[in-house]
Design a protein that fits this description.
There is one protein chain. The chain has 101 residues and is mainly alpha-helical. The chain has one domain. It has five helices and two strands. A hairpin with a 2-residue loop joins strand 1 and strand 2. Helix 1 runs antiparallel to helix 2 and helix 2 crosses helix 4. The termini are far apart. The relative contact order is 0.16.
Length: 101
C-alpha cells in the first residue's frame, strides 16, 4: 500500500443497545453527492437526514429506507455526531444545525 493508505477514511464503531455498528467512511463521490444535495436544498435538517441516510445505507447494506426513517430519535442523537465526523462536518456546524432544529 502507498503512503496515501494512511490518509484514507476509517470506519467508526458505535454500540447501540448492545449492537455494534460499523459506520463506514464515504468516498469523495459520495461526499460530493451530499454537497450537491445541500446546494439544492437549503434546509439543514434535510441535508443532515440525507447524510445520515447515505452513511447508514453504505454501512448497513440491508437496511431499508423505512427502517432508517423510523429509528427512534434517541439513536439518531448517538449516530449523528459520529456520522458528521465521518463526512468531515465540523462541530461548530453541527451546533449551528442543532440550534435551528
Amino acid at each position: 500500500m502507498s503512503k496515501l493508505s494512511k490518509l484514507m477514511g476509517k470506519s467508526r464503531f458505535i454500540t447501540i443497545e448492545g449492537e455494534q455498528i460499523e459506520l463506514k467512511p464515504l468516498n469523495i463521490d459520495e461526499v460530493n453527492d451530499i454537497s450537491e444535495f445541500a446546494s439544492k436544498n437549503p434546509d439543514n435538517k434535510q441535508i443532515l437526514k440525507y447524510a445520515v441516510k447515505k452513511v447508514l445505507k453504505k454501512s448497513i447494506e440491508d437496511a431499508t429506507d423505512e427502517e432508517i426513517e423510523n429509528l427512534d430519535p434517541k439513536y439518531y442523537a448517538q449516530l449523528i455526531p459520529v456520522i458528521l465526523d465521518i463526512i468531515g462536518i465540523e462541530k461548530k456546524k453541527v451546533e449551528s444545525i442543532q440550534k435551528q432544529s
